[in-house]
Design the sequence.
């Protein structure tokens, strides 16, 4: 199946089974805003819990906060967002579609990579075991030609981005003959900068009202509180502050479902370190975060680092963790070495001394910061994409199954009486009453057992328990595994122990410790 079709299926599956709905749907929706349904909110909460616990339980020196979305507007002046939180946009005059100029060029770079990879795959097939990939890449004429073009484009693009040269960005698009995917033409407008922050007004009178911004990232709420936390929590450097919360960006191009939203949620951790140690910590956090992703079990080949070509004004190193979505490798998390830029700026703009006093060195300094910033919604999308499977069964039937990591599944357990009579429903309810304190359980007695299994497969429930007539005699039930569809007979008294171990976030956390 084409990847585009897979993606469409995932989007409709999300809607059909109560994971994600378009916002304001009965009013025809609101672009790039989505609501999470009854299943989606559970999955989202589990993702957040997995992240939160990996930060604040597994690291003695990381604590959390929850800062307000509204903040003093000068914060955004100090952080550079008022002046520089821009994306370069370009319009196609024929289709009237708007694009990010940087994204168009990055897609072009990816096309060269694809071409090179195709040559490599073809050659690997041809030469079999004797294939030497490094040598092939270094000598094959076609690969070298693509590589030279790619490197030249990359160099030109980096320079243009770093110099904020909008005319050059447009020229690159023209020279590379990039066409609008909708109209197929090269009838492009100039490139313009567009600020992504939403603003509103606070205050009751028109005169006294103050223009404030909806935060475009949660990080600044951490920076302006770092000394409060450090002092009241008696934290010593190195230490971190974690936060989960909503962020808002007036994205130019809002496509690809929940990948790019105008209201979304971030899980950010700012780690405060001694100046000079930041690159070491940057590398450590890269590894810690990659492990967190890999522990979900989708295969390490689904992840890669992508180092930034253009460093943000505040960073001295930056990388993205990218995930293989149905539409290619895409950023899910950013890891940035933000230097002491933010804290210094807040010191300057607020006029307050917010230096850290280091009791061991007996000196004050402005800490450097490593940030790990991951989108809840993009993580959600990556997990849904990697979990969605259509399987052909040996009996000729097919099923759609969400192979979610058990610890993140919205419902952990479905309890199903084989028939709606003979005391089986009562027995099933009794089992739920025992287990509901530990797991999210669902009761279902409607339709055949096969149909009920399919419904649970579609929402990713890792275990189904069937209560049959035999259960009333021996107090044992059938425990069915979602992925293998294998069934085992288990005493009711052992259910809690068996299942807890397999579906708990604690078990998942132990794998990354
Ligand atoms: P992009 O280049 O895709 O616009 P970014 O580099 O601006 O992303 P960051 O500012 O590093 O993103 O934000 C950290 C994380 O927040 C991203 O890795 C992503 O998971 C999430 N995120 C950012 N913007 C959005 C958005 N519009 N919708 C959903 N998630 C987002």
Sequence:
């Amino acid at each position: 199946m084409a990847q585009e079709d897979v993606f469409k299926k995932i989007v409709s599956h999300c809607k059909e089974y109560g994971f994600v709905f378009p916002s304001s749907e009965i009013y025809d929706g609101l672009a790039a805003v989505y609501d999470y349904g009854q299943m989606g909110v559970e999955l989202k909460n589990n993702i957040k819990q997995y992240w939160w616990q990996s930060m604040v339980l597994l690291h003695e020196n990381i604590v959390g906060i929850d800062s307000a979305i509204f903040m003093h507007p000068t914060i955004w002046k100090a952080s550079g967002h008022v002046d520089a939180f821009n994306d370069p946009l370009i319009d196609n005059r024929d289709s009237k579609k708007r694009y990010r100029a940087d994204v168009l060029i990055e897609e072009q770079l990816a096309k060269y990579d694809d071409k090179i990879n195709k040559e490599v795959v073809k050659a690997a097939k041809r030469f079999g075991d004797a294939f030497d990939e490094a040598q092939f890449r270094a000598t094959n004429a076609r690969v070298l030609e693509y590589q030279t073009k790619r490197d030249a484009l990359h160099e030109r693009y980096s320079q243009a981005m770093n110099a904020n040269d909008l005319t050059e960005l447009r020229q690159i698009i023209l020279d590379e003959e990039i066409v609008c995917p909708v109209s197929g033409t090269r009838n492009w407008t100039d490139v313009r900068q567009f600020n992504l922050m939403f603003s509103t007004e606070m205050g009751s009178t028109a005169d006294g009202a103050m223009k404030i911004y909806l935060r475009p990232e949660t990080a600044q709420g951490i920076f302006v509180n770092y000394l409060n936390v450090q002092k009241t929590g008696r934290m010593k450097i190195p230490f971190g502050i974690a936060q989960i919360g909503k962020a808002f960006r007036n994205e130019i191009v809002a496509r690809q479902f929940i990948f790019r939203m105008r209201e979304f949620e971030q899980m950010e951790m700012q780690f405060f370190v001694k100046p000079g140690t930041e690159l070491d910590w940057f590398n450590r956090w890269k590894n810690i975060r990659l492990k967190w992703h890999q522990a979900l079990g989708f295969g390490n080949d689904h992840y890669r680092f992508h180092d930034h070509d253009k460093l943000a004004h505040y960073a001295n190193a930056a990388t993205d963790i990218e995930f293989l979505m149905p539409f290619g490798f895409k950023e899910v998390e950013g890891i940035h070495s933000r230097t002491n830029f933010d804290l210094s700026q807040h010191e300057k703009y607020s006029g307050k001394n917010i230096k850290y006093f280091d009791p061991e060195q007996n000196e004050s300094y402005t800490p450097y910061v490593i940030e790990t910033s991951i989108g809840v919604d993009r993580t959600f999308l990556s997990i849904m994409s990697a979990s969605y499977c259509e399987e052909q069964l040996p009996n000729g039937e097919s099923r759609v199954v969400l192979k979610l990591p058990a610890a993140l599944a919205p419902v952990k357990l479905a309890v199903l009486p084989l028939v709606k009579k003979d005391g089986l429903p009562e027995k099933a309810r009794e089992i739920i009453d025992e287990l509901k304190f530990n797991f999210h359980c669902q009761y279902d007695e409607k339709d055949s057992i096969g149909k009920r299994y399919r419904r649970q497969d579609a929402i990713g429930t890792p275990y189904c328990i069937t209560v049959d007539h035999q259960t009333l005699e021996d107090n044992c039930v059938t425990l069915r595994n979602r992925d293998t569809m294998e069934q085992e007979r288990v005493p009711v008294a052992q259910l809690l122990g068996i299942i807890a171990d397999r579906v708990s976030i604690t078990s998942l956390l132990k794998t990354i410790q």
Summary: Residues 61 and 239 are 5 Å apart (CA to CA). The chain is about 40% helix and 25% strand. The first strand starts at residue 20 and ends at 22. The domain at 86-194 is CATH 3.30.40.230 (Herpes Virus-1).
